[in-house]
Amino acid sequence: MKNQLISYLFCLLPIFSYSQDYFQYFDGADTLPDYSILIEIDTTAFNIWQVGSPQKEIFNSPSTSPNVMVTDTINYYPVNNVSSFQYTIVPWTTWGILALQWTQKLDMDFGKDGGFLEFSNDGGVNWQNIFDNPYVYSIYGFDESNLDTIASGEEVFTGVDSTWRDIWLCYDMSWMAYYDSIMVRHTFVSDSIEGNNEGWMIDNLLAHITIIHTVDEVAQEKYLKVSPNPTTGRVNISTKKLNEFHIIERMELVNSAGDVLEAWKNIPTKFFIDINHHPDGLYYLKIQTNKKSEVVKIVLQR
User: Fold this and answer.
1) Rounded distance, CA 164 to CA 151, Å?
2) In the 8-state DSSP scheme, what is residue 175?
3) Which helix (H) or strand (E) holds 174?
């Protein structure tokens, strides 16, 4: 059974914004319902996510008063726990970078317990971890020492970080425009060993579109960049930024005999692939955007 928490959003316009900004402070209704995000918290007995005032040793105050989203406002998190909450972002423009921001603190048993994020573009049928994912434009703001892979195979936030960190999760809006919505899910997991830790605390969720991305990026002179080349497996693809709808409509990996080995359709203009499972040699990457087509020679050499 789901408990639906309507979190109303403030509407601001900072220097890097293309359109309205949407804030969600977990503090109740602050503006019109038309600008709200619907957060779903699973209310079954095992789910420990709560909205309230934190009253723990490390988690003792919100980023902005009075409330946060936290893995229990009072108690340590239990063993063998899996708890989630999720929300849906509906695309409201067809270009730019969608930036999801929030602040967080961590107190988890390093490498054993963790918190991870997933997204779904098919209504929750399939979910993908956001870390090291080619469809994620960028994820940053956290201390890299708090990133690890746990026994389940999920890459997670883990360990202790008592500093409020401003986390950014970004997607290409032109790619998102192909879907009715993108669902984002935050999941906390713990193993069978009691650690007397406080878990994961989140505050001040923000969604907005940027023209100038906040990560320092060097302006790309050529329309298309494919690197590194030669490669040992991973190939990064990026096109020049345009202030309009911009998508890679089709991309094919072709061998020297002309055989199409792999193909992708309607992908972001910042993307990566891994061809490590193919033999060393010469390949061609045929890339067709909604603006132009190019063919790039790639050498796989390990």
Assistant:
1) 27
2) H
3) helix 173-176
